Description:
By secondary structure, this protein is mainly β. The chain is about 0% helix and about 20% strand. The chain has a domain of about 35 residues. It has a three-stranded antiparallel sheet, with no helix packed on it. The relative contact order is 0.20. The mean pLDDT is about 90.
Amino acid sequence: MTWIYHQRSGEIYHNSRYMGKGYAGRMTNKNNPDRQQVKGLGPLPQGRYKIIGVSE
């Protein structure tokens, strides 16, 4: 199971299938990969994450 999240657009894919759009970060830092180092405001840093559940 592979999930891919694109920081700049907020698009998320599961096994190459588009699942929807979201956001990460706050204010002018939202979906801005150049601000991922700003703790508490920037989007989640690039890297590998384990997704263990889904909420609807």
